[in-house]
Write a structure and sequence with these properties.
Distance between the termini: 5 Å
Order of helices and strands: HHHHH
Number of helices: 5
Strand content: under 5%
Shape: globular
Number of domains: 1
Structural class: mainly alpha
């Protein structure tokens, strides 16, 4: 593993997270079940999905990108987690907007819930693709 590859977040990492996020968002984004789930899922479950997404990103990053060694790089590790998740949220937003399933102005709560629900698989795809060249 290249030591500098885990010390920075570069353009290649950015595009890898986009591709990985999109790859796992697209199949779910066209599902009417996911659209309806955003209308019925309680806030407690939405928060739980956010926590699970961040947990999976962190667990995978610790073991794949950082090889279990984050003691001296904790701030980079946390920054990378935040960047990965924000990119994922943006990718999901754009995909839902493109397929006309992002009611930002008419139903902003539903729009937010859709982004969170679809970001769960997307975040895993993003971090996995991002880690492929780190191993």
């Amino acid at each position: 593993m290249n030591e500098t590859s885990i010390q920075t977040f570069n353009k290649e990492d950015f595009f890898q997270v986009i591709v990985g996020s999109a790859a796992l968002t697209l199949p779910v984004a066209f599902s009417e079940e996911s659209w309806n789930l955003s209308k019925t899922l309680p806030w407690g479950n939405i928060i739980f999905i956010i926590v699970l997404s961040l947990l999976f990103i962190n667990l995978y990053s610790i073991n794949s990108i950082f090889s279990g060694k984050i003691n001296n790089r904790l701030s980079l590790f946390l920054l990378r987690t935040i960047i990965d998740y924000i990119i994922t949220l943006i990718v999901v937003f754009i995909i839902l907007l493109a397929i006309n399933q992002m009611p930002v102005f008419s139903e902003p709560i539903i729009a937010f819930k859709r982004i969170i629900i679809l970001s769960f698989p997307a975040s895993m795809g993003g971090v996995i693709v991002d880690s492929l060249d780190k191993e």
